[in-house]
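Q: What changes when glutamine is included in the input?
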Amino acid sequence: MLTDLTIAEAREKLRAREFSAVDLTMAHLHAIETLNPRLNAFITVSHSQALDQARAADEALARGDARALTGIPLAIKDLFCTVGVRTTAASEILRPFVPPYESTVTAQLLRDGAVFLGKTNLDEFAMGSSNMTSAYGPVENPWKRLQDEDAVLVPGGSSGGSAAAVAARMSMGATGTDTGGSIRQPASFCGLVGVKPSYGRCSRWGVVAFASSLDHPGPFARTVRDGAILLGSMAGHDPKDSTSADVPVPDYEAACRRGVKGLRIGVPKEYRSDGMPAEIEALWQKGLGWLRDAGAEIVDVSLPHTKYGLATYYIVAPAEASSNLARYDGVRYGARQDGAELSDMYGNTRAAGFGAEVRRRIMIGTYVLSAGYYDAYYLRAQKVRALILRDFNDAFQQVDALITPTTPSAAFAQGEKMDDPIQMYLNDLFTVGANLAGVPAISIPAGLDANGLPLGLQIIGKPFDEETVFAVSAEMERAAGFTALPQLRAGG
Ligand code: GLN
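A: The predicted holo structure follows.
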């Protein structure tokens, strides 16, 4: 099946003209037609644009002018602005929004010849861990519990549509954004590789903002090497994003072949959360064993401020969100609701346009930033954030990378954890640290739980040292030999 190929394989076969880019794109569009009505991973499918891009890719291949991703079909999280293609952020307020500009990341993917199949579903404005807050309906995880095939599981969030699309073979890879875990957690829930690079590695320009100091664009793929190929295209300095780092982009694919001999790998003891399921603890130990066998040294380290990570995140992220979302006023973007006075128009537009979780975040954010509470919450959270960053810096004096579980559980069912926002926020326990510190982290599928659901392990590295993170990830991927497939997939 064409839809089962990795990006690396497809790239080679396209160049050898074993099939055309149009064939490959058609196979994925067909998979979308069959599976998307059930999984709801795409908000918008760009059928004719994808075929036009595939035809252009075939012409480039015929000319011998192939680039890194020529003819590779990808799915784009509907948070990346795409010229002429509606970009909703899964919100009612942006339902009619068709951007006149292209995000830098998607522009770079197009520059390298990628084909865009469409825009994927997400939690509204990327706020959530289940894809249940989308105004365009929930996404179904293509994986099923062995003993309970009727349960509809969440793909994780916020980039749940991208993860479901890649897992179900509707797309070969996808873009996501990770503010507190939104690439790594859905990757873990869907048996994928999810890459959150260093802060500043991928431009945020043209990506709908959630929390600007925490937002990280990055890729989803089915293999570590494919993740490296995608990040290579997405990364790079962008003068249009003042936080974009002006550092060269190394050869991530080559880094995947480096091995781990002689590396020092840290195990942060504070990540042993109470109540962590025994099978996740066991998988973690197994992962450390793989690295030890491959010649790495395992070292215990301490990240003493880990326990403040979630509280800090859930102050900083809503604060920045409340400020970023002030721009949706019914004047500049998207939908408008009329009102007798200007202020009524603002109020009506925002009340009709934002869902419950987004409104909750705006209220928390404006509260922690308000004059009376700024010092008690926001300022203090920023100070704790500095301590969390220092923890990572101290740990990286001793080790080259850290290994932790990605999530405290496997995928849960739709409706679970819905009545208590705090339960939902706990999903991000192991992921938010890397966002607060801006360090790179990858989740790889490492094993299955007793229900046959994928579980991820997380590899965290030094700032801008994605290469070591890829080297360790690739070694663990080889050892894990993860070959399980989701029940709902093209040809499945
Ligand atoms: N689940 C986290 C939140 O709800 C992270 C979301 C994200 O990374 N975009 O904020």
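Observations recorded in class: The mean pLDDT is 97.
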